[in-house]
User: Fold methyltetrahydrofolate:homocysteine methyltransferase related from Salix purpurea.
Amino acid sequence: MRTGVDVIGLDWTVDMEDGRKRMGSEISVQGKVDPAYLFSPLLAITDEIQRVVRCAGPRGHILNLVHGVLVGTPEEAVAHFFEVARSLEFSTPQRKSKNW
Assistant:
């Protein structure tokens, strides 16, 4: 898909895997975790973060919450979101040529 942009933000109602397929690998995506997940057990939060990141693919992804943190969200869950996000390992694509 040619858009002339570098990044497209996907609404949380758009499945990340489907959105990535439609956008292709040349455009970075901003993909969101529904903040309601932060009311879930910590393992469910971890699983959802990892699912979104995995579906976004190896190139260009900005991870965030849909509309920020909802009122009443447990602070432990917010801290866990950021701990999991920081713990993810990212790889940089290998250069195909010296001119890249």
The first helix runs from residue 16 to 23. Residues 7-87 form one domain. The helical segments are 16-23, 42-56, 75-87. The radius of gyration is 15 Å.
